[in-house]
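Attaching the record inline, Q. Sequence:
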Amino acid sequence: MVRAVAHVQLDTERVVVTEWFFTPGSETGSHRHERDYVVVPMTTGVLQMLVDGTSSEALLECGVSYARSAGVTHNVVNPNDFEFRFIEIELK
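Structure, as predicted:
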């Protein structure tokens, strides 16, 4: 498995801001968010989500944010033939 690369840009008492870099085929590995979070795509493309053995794909558009609640264990995979990036903002 090729891992996506995470770079923490900011970690304060209120938020953690992480930039994620996905080469083609790379993935986060299974993980669970302990905090609510917002994702800001920096690339337009598809990401594959693996949750409880179920796979789904989501089309993300550069600059179009979405929010998720804490608690879901998942793996994020880049099925594109290009690098994919997004900013993740976790709320403390």
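The chain has a mean pLDDT of 97. The chain has one domain: 5-91.

More tomorrow.
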